[in-house]
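Why should sequence recovery work at all? Because a backbone constrains its sequence more than one might expect. Tight turns favour small or flexible residues, buried strands favour hydrophobic ones, and helices have their own preferences. The token representation captures these environments compactly. In the example below, the structure is given first.
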């Protein structure tokens, strides 16, 4: 058996690192709360499930985010898993903070978690823990209550674009 050498780029090569990260698809979520009667939220594409006991999910937030410091102290944070058809809503929530909720009638729980209508799943969460991780913070959220419809296709972010999943037989 012949072993072929592989040409590796150093991890300090930002373009190569971004290209490698783009090879892994991730779910896309809205992270929102109602704070002082005002909807506050953002989109996150680094969302992952973590644990069943306790029920935890994670996301990564840039240190430069001006939205996360507002959400961090909310009693409940709503996480909405975007449906495949909600790519424009996702872009809107990733855009200018003062226009993120234009034309959106969010759903609000009694404790202030805010949700995007039509999402594949919604999770009412509280902050479980947060860790500095390079130029981001790794945020762990504990799920307190939820609703999900697995028949709704989720929005997927891969290779710097939105994609749909394909079921294979």
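From this structural description, the recovered sequence reads:
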């Amino acid at each position: 058996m012949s072993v072929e050498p592989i040409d590796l780029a150093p991890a300090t090569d930002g373009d190569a690192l971004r290209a490698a990260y783009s090879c892994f698809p991730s779910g896309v979520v809205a992270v929102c709360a109602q704070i002082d009667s005002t909807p506050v939220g953002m989109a996150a594409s680094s969302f992952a499930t973590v644990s069943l006991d306790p029920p935890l999910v994670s996301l990564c937030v840039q240190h430069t985010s001006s939205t996360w410091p507002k959400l961090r102290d909310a009693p409940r944070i709503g996480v909405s898993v975007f449906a495949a058809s909600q790519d424009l809503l996702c872009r809107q929530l990733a855009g200018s903070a003062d226009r993120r909720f234009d034309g959106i009638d969010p759903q609000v729980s009694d404790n202030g978690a805010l949700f995007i209508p039509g999402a594949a799943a919604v999770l009412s969460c509280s902050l479980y823990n947060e860790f500095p991780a390079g130029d981001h913070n790794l945020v762990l959220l504990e799920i307190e209550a939820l609703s999900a419809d697995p028949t709704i296709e989720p929005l997927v972010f891969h290779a710097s674009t939105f994609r749909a999943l394909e079921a294979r037989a």
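A few observations help interpret the result. The helical segments are 14-21, 68-72, 87-94.
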